[in-house]
Amino acid sequence: MGVAKETRARAEERLAQDREAADRLPGLLAEVAAAEDALDAARDGGAPAEELHELGVALDTLLTEAMRAAYAHERVLVGPKGYMDRIQRRKRLAHPRVKQATGVAERLLTARETHRLHGIQGVPRPVA
Length: 128
Known about the structure:
The chain is mainly α. 83% of the residues lie in helices and 0% in strands. The protein is elongated. The chain starts with a helix and ends in a 10-residue tail after the last helix.
């Protein structure tokens, strides 16, 4: 198998994996919204620190999965040539649909980083 065919096969394989991840994006966004609502409700209800910590970590996990799925959606919109040719990738990144997908992914990345900095409740360590 030549190098070009091997590269093309690898690109098609990665594209298939990205399609699977991108298909999960709408469900993940709904789960993120539900997790945010649960965390806000627990904060408003005066839940203990351990519960807030668990809910915060769960939200962080969902934000990470949703962000990865959003970047996979961006790569799917770029197409298989984007895996092999950086010039084609840059050209495709300029299209409005791809820009919109990039914006969603970047907003999720920002939300995740903000949540990691300010949203996960610290749990006091037990005294030995």
